[in-house]
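Known limitations

Structure tokens in this collection are predictions and should be treated as such. Users comparing against experimental data should check residue numbering before alignment. To illustrate the layout, the record for DNA-binding transcriptional regulator, MarR family is reproduced below. The input appears on top and the generated tokens appear beneath it.
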Amino acid sequence: MPEPDERLYFLLQRAAHQLRTTADRRCLAAAGITTTQLGALLAVHDRPGITQQQLAQTLGLRESAITALVTRLITADLIIRHPHPREHRAVALHLSEHGAATLRAVQPEIDRFNAELRAVLGDTAFTQTTAALNRLTQDDTWPAPGS
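Generated tokens:
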């Protein structure tokens, strides 16, 4: 039997692609949005009044990509923007009623997807994996300078 592949980054890339493809298909069917749009809606839901710059940082996207994404979300009546209360050149993003309804519509699919991942990984590995991925995405000290 061949040794399991331990090239973690390569495996993460392959898994991410497969998971994104499947999740995109399911999110589109359930609520008419992609996972990128879902990520933006969740970020706006979690941080009402978030700026486009903060949204770009949260999603790990360039500001030019965020501008196009926000424009699509506004056109689809999923988010609304208001003048930022403290930054005169920034706008504050908020969910629209339709955006909140869209999140409610997609939630059962998110729950089902996570339940399927938990079944594949097992409870302990699922919890450990989500904790590790949260550390990787929220730790400003990784990778170490000069790495």
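For this record: Residues 53 and 66 are 8 Å apart (CA to CA). The beta strands are 79-83, 91-95. Please report discrepancies through the issue tracker.
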